Amino acid sequence: MGAAIANQILGPSTGVGPVTLKVGDLDAMAAYYSGGLGLHVLNQKGSTITLGQRGVPAVVLEHTPLLTHAPTSAAGLFHTALLFDDPAGLASSIYSLARHYPSSFTGSADHSVSKAFYFDDPEGNGVELYWDRPRAEWGWKDGRVRMTTDYLDPNKFLRDNLAEDGAGQSSVGAATVGHVHLKVGDIETARAFYVDTVGFEITAEIGTQALFVSAGGYHHHLAMNTWHSRGATGRWPALGLGEVTIDVGSEDDLGGLQERLTSRSIAIRNDGNVLAFEDPWKNEIQVRVGA
């Protein structure tokens, strides 16, 4: 790969960092992500709580009680997807949520590359809990990964993978943010921004409905869809998505991204550690060298 081409895409060490949510009821949301899902409180400072596992932040809750919910048709967060190390850990967290928040479960699917379970938190933010099959089992053709939406029986998954003492092991599953799925107004604009400018590579598409992108051959680090938000314009301050963090592998990656954004006259903020900017729908993106 030539240097000029390499400078246009994000490096293979790119991943997704913590997702910040603006929340109305801080206590209820913290209880869901800790007592329900099994994340640990890593830090609490004023009206902000950071949760994660093994010292790695996954979800940041920012108390903003004066904000209200945006309509379903607005751009913003579709879901935050937490990736588990193994099926047993995933099953443990699913079991815990099912016990403590049974009405939050919204569905499950076998996506060929992964097994995924979907929930809504108490304020309606989508949450995906998933486990990846080994990369050697992923199917690729012409640079696109095969992702399906096949039936996955949640009860059978729990029977097959939950330890006998699973009821007391809700935090056993080590989880980090694997990907984030956003609601956007149109896919062509999303492609121009997240692929041509930010530097992700396309891994899958569903016509004009959804786009999946990644770095380094992952099935997707970000996805964008118009299923509920076709035609949406810029967001206004509301509960829900605060910001998405992207971790890149080097200062060169960060510098190349800054050059691409600047060349397209996209406003940026750079405090020396984090490069912050907005996508065309005012979803806040922060990029840093991997913490």
Automatic annotation (TrEMBL):
PROSITE patterns: VOC
SUPFAM superfamilies recorded: Glyoxalase/Bleomycin resistance protein/Dihydroxybiphenyl dioxygenase
Residue ranges occupied by any VOC domain in the UniProt entry: 15-132, 176-291
Signal peptide range in chain numbering: none
Coiled coil segments of this chain: none
Highest taxon, organism lineage: Bacteria
Protein name according to UniProt: VOC family protein
Species of the source: Tessaracoccus antarcticus
Organism classification: Bacteria, Bacillati, Actinomycetota, Actinomycetes, Propionibacteriales
